[in-house]
Amino acid sequence: KSANPQWREQFDFHYFSDRKDMLDIEVWRKDNKKHEELLGTCQVDITALPTKQTNCLELPLEKHPASLLMLIAVSPCTGVSISDLCVCPLGDPSERQQISQRYSIKNSFRDIKDIGFLQVKVLKAVDLLAADFSGKSDPFCVLELGNDSLQTHTVYKNLNPEWNKVFTFPIKDIHDVLEVTVFDEDGDKPPDFLGKVAIPLLSV
To answer: Membrane topology per the record (predicted)?
Structure first.
């Protein structure tokens, strides 16, 4: 019930140089639980923004006489990585020893925000649902931790895909839950949901 909503939400997107450079934003209106209406859209060219500073942007919405006020900061990625299984970031014993020292009890208060990190190896899925008429699916896997999100590549025409990727996240809240969702890529349409698992960090 507001024409001037304030959300005050922060989201972290991991931008890699091989991805597209446009940030797409949509604003929706919800009448009730069932009816939703797209109010407007806008785009931000990430490559045009100055780095290492917070950019205050007032973005006019297309097809709607309104604007969106956003703060966008482009900064180097720290603590986040995607790699192949054969070059796992924690595979080196000397690196593991450095990590153990970094998070030892005597260093607990050196950096209060550096709680730790989570490394996830996404190996494969077995017996997925067939989402296409051909009896196959085009699955990819999305990992979400808090407002951080990373995803694998798509394995086409396969119900038993192997991704063999290693994902590393910085942990901001020990009470967060890692959500792993498998989708079927469907061209220009929204992906189809194939399955999901939720893992509380405290259970790891």
So the answer is: Multi-pass membrane protein
